[in-house]
Amino acid sequence: MSPCESPPSKPDLLPPSVVERHPDLSFDDGNLVLLTQTRYFVVHQGFLCRHSPVLKDVVETLESSSSLLRLEGLPVVKVQDTSEDMLYFLIALYDGLPEMPFAAESFGIASALLRLSTKYQVHRLRQQLLSELSAAWPSTLSSWDAREEAMLSPNGAYEPRKYTPHPILVINLARSVNAPELLSSAFYDLSRSSISSTAAGYIASETMECHQLAEEDLFHLLKGREDASRFLSTFLAVRLGGRKPSPNCIYTQAGDHPRRSYCQAAFENIFYDMLRDANSLLCYRSCDPLFAIINAEMIHERDDGGILLRPCEYCRAEFRMEVEAARNDFWHSLPEWFGDIQCIGVGLRSDCGKTVVWYIQH
């Protein structure tokens, strides 16, 4: 070294006693340290940079830094994520996404993985997670119907919270990671709860933490709930109230048949049964227009011990087509009803190094 050259600056050394080395996810041949507040992970720089352009930019920034932290002689990337979340993330990168049902008990892991895969722009992992979550929070009506059928217990009881996380958690997660495809079904699911319980928020039993909607989302929820209720009222009034038999009705085609008004009377019974159900105290089902509309088609199959009136096959087929069309119109209206749902991504804020990009949610 020339006498005129300044001696190289010595990198800052971080004593290992300050934080704990993770016992499982630290590799002997690792060449990079990911440092959380309580633990650090010895990982492979090339592997992480291949999967995450954000971490790649951070590492390149660190290499040109004059104040590089080192631990066990390795360069350190400090992150703001918890050690538990980072552990889930690294396991998913190294071993693949674990096989787990995206139910209430595993939602914490799923949400951590989705947040970090979004934050570090690991697109393959993010898309895989969204695909799995979409099974419970679908964007199509057919998938929603399949999801609702899966919410039935063996004895036929409807128990959505037993099988899926609370929709407030899903809405807040979808907003934070720019996943609008989850929002329509989550908003609709939540709209079936009472207004008071929704406004009060959801208290997680494990942490006793209260999760609430943002004020704007609460407004969108109440508006969407009102629009959905109006749609159902219109359907009842227009498609059932005073409904006439089909032109091909078996009984009207028979002239002065004793059952000439049979189908009309059957639809009137359906109309009044639905009004009675709408005024019941049944949880979820009484505030579920999609279920109520299809139930209007099936209600004549229910035998409550009284005289059961069934429309003829022609009248039923005509009404079935109207039910299918109404439910499709209802489903496609959900994004507009619940606030013209969209999230506009313009980047991602990273808490590592000096990388500064971010997401904006609308």
What is this structure, in a nutshell?
This protein has about 350 residues and is of the alpha/beta class. The protein is about 50% helix and about 5% strand.
Describe this structure in words.
The structure is a single chain. The longest helix is centred in the middle third of the chain and has 26 residues, at 215-240. The two termini are 57 Å apart. Strand 3 and strand 4 (39-43) form a beta hairpin. This protein has helices spanning 45-51, 53-63, 83-95, 107-119, 123-133, 141-150, 160-163, 167-177, 183-191, 195-200, 215-240, 250-253, 262-278, 289-298, 313-337, and strands at 12-13, 20-21, 32-35, 39-43, 69-71, 74-78, 202-203, 210-211. The chain has a six-stranded mixed beta sheet with strand order 1-5-6-3-4-2. It has a two-stranded antiparallel sheet with strand order 7-8. The chain folds into three domains: 12-89, no CATH class; 99-223; 227-337, no CATH class. With 362 residues, it is of the alpha/beta class.
